[in-house]
Amino acid sequence: MRGSYLFTSESVSEGHPDKVCDRISDAVVDAFLAADPQARVACETLVTTNRMVIAGECRLAREACGPKALMNKSGKVSKAKIEALARQAVREIGYEQKGFHWKKAKVEILLHGQSADIARGVDASGNKDEGAGDQGIMFGYACDETPELMPAPIQFAHNILHAMADARHAGREPLLRPDAKSQVTLKYVDGKPIKATAIVVSTQHAAKNGKGRELESSDVKEIVRPYVLKTLPNGWMCDEEQFYVNPTGRFVIGGPDGDSGLTGRKIIVDTYGGAAPHGGGAFSGKDPSKVDRSAAYAARYLAKNVVAAGLASRCTIQLAYAIGVSHPLSVYVDTAGTGKVDEEKLSEVLQQLVNLSPRGIREHLGLNRPIYQRTSAYGHFGRAPEKDGGFSWEKTDLVDELKRAF
């Protein structure tokens, strides 16, 4: 790697149109998993001005497959419930605007039963173990740039927006609205980040302040500034002329009324901000039998434990699968020249510690639970493990075993 360079990552808030879709799709996943831990879900959402369209395939474990199968045959997950969940998600994000309102938007649900051909390849039967839900490659990454073992630019970009959203929800920033983006450029010297050289934040806001005056970008800049300063390490703030807030000057029309949204369009925001490869598959809207999601979580889990164990300063792991096949086709480990152990041996040890079949991943990380709606904004990685199993892939419980192995 180059020793000195600039690197930039962006994040988007929970109110960004694509993230609204991710949230709704993951709410559907959670509803099915709450009804049946073995449920199958592949849910896509489209949002635009006062409209939500929810489509895809789904199946509770004991129900029939095929396009004519009723998603609510058992009565556990009805169209009415899914509509209510979509409205609740939008309400919690904070949309009560004329062009997009949680209560007034029209909701169309086009979910149908899972394809029998897909189910045949994925379901366990006889001596055949459960197979991967699709072919594909998945990547996991970790580095020692932050306490979360994440690349610093994406972690800071997430943290800025998360802090602003917390303040908005708490009522401390009544002029802010849900839609927002951030972008952080850091300077690296000898491969380590040392300061920000540019910060960009664009956030939707009220048209006027509390006194009836039109809100200007300079006003919004002063609202945003404390959250940027709070997020960056002391002395890391960029020069003032490189601190951009709402550079177009006005951001009142936002969210799905300003731009349509789709599930799965922010995969780099969801992962490592471009600092590591991405296999191409999105996460949200998919149950954990889909390796696009579960294997990407497993790869992050393994990479994070490698770095946490001190075996490398950075680690990239690639997993590859074929649809209907239970074992991974390859497990590739790359420590970018920072490793203290042989990478081929490290790959072998990791496979001994964790069963990387789709079933093995789900059981090891406890993924068959309704824990996904919370992942839909501010990154799937770099989060704290939660008591109910949320973000279980962020645990570092393999560290001791890895150290003993080497």
What does this molecule look like?
This protein has 406 residues and is α+β, with helices and mostly antiparallel strands. It is built from 11 helices and 13 strands. The strands form 4 sheets. Strands 1-8-9-10 form a 4-stranded mixed sheet, with helices on one face. Helix 1 crosses helix 2 (79-93), helix 4 (152-169) packs across helix 5 and helix 8 (291-308) crosses helix 10. The radius of gyration is 22 Å and the shape is flat. The two termini are 26 Å apart.
Order of helices and strands: EHEEHEEEHEHEEHEHEHHEEHHH
Low-confidence stretches: 64-72
Helix tally equals 11
Question: Major sheet, described briefly?
Answer: 4 strands, mixed
The largest beta-sheet arranges its strands as 1-8-9-10
Helical content band? 25-40%
Beta-strand content bin: 15-25%
Q: Over the alpha carbons, how many angstroms does the gyration radius reach?
A: 22 Å
Number of strands: 13
What is the end-to-end distance?
26 Å
> Which structural class do the helices and strands define?
alpha+beta
Average the pLDDT over all residues and give the rounded result.
92
Shape: flat
Give the SSE layout.
Layout: E1 5-12, H1 17-35, E2 40-48, E3 51-59, H2 79-93, E4 96-97, E5 100-101, E6 106-113, H3 116-122, E7 136-143, H4 152-169, E8 176-189, E9 192-205, H5 217-231, E10 243-245, H6 255-258, E11 261-262, H7 267-270, H8 291-308, E12 314-321, E13 330-334, H9 343-353, H10 358-365, H11 399-405
Parallel strand pairs: 3-6, 9-10
Antiparallel strand pairs: 1-8, 2-3, 2-11, 4-5, 7-12, 8-9, 12-13
Helix pairs in contact: 1-2, 4-5, 8-10
